Amino acid sequence: MFSVRLVNADSYQATPLPQLDPTFSEFRGTEIKYVPIVRVFGTTHTGEKTCLHLHGVFPYLYVPFTGDDNADGLAYRLAASLDAAINISLGSANSNTQHVYQVQRVAGIPFYGYHRREHQFFKVSFYNPAIMKKAIDLLQVSSVNNKLP
Asked: What region holds the DNA polymerase zeta catalytic subunit N-terminal domain (predicted)?
């Protein structure tokens, strides 16, 4: 086990290393060009300074959905709509840049408030942590799939 006292953390984009990172997105059916690497700066329990590069960590958010029977089709449409909305908001409307790594159907109890049962969510994972704020803003103003999350 390796223990680090966190001082600072950030991330950067790099080409995937086959032994550490996924190189192909099964969900999208495409080769992965860049993956996020989380860089953690800190000290060990003996006081040594360290910098860790964490691979295989994709930033994500949860989008609630009603539990439709066609969840797989909806997941692919959500990914395509999010990619298109992000590309338009970045001024590259004709771009086919993919920002969404994968969309998974998950169930869980919402963090806020009292809930008796689990709710259905889509876990939307992204390639770039810097795009998360833009995706959240677009989802909140219903620019994706013409629906509120």
From this structure: 1-55
User: With a threshold of 0.90, does the pTM exceed it?
Assistant: no
Q: Which two tokens stand for residue 69?
A: 């029977």
**Cα-flanking dihedrals φ and ψ of residue 104, to 5°?**
-120, 145
Overall average pLDDT of the 28-43 stretch: 94
Bridge partner residues of 138 (DSSP): none
In 3-state terms, what secondary structure has residue 91? Answer: coil
Residue 138 parent element (H or E): helix 132-140
Q: Residue 24 is encoded by which pair of tokens?
A: 């192909």
DSSP H or E stretch at residue 73: helix 71-89
Tell which residue, 86, 76, 66, 64, has the closest CA to residue 144: 86
- Tell me what pLDDT residue 146 has: 54
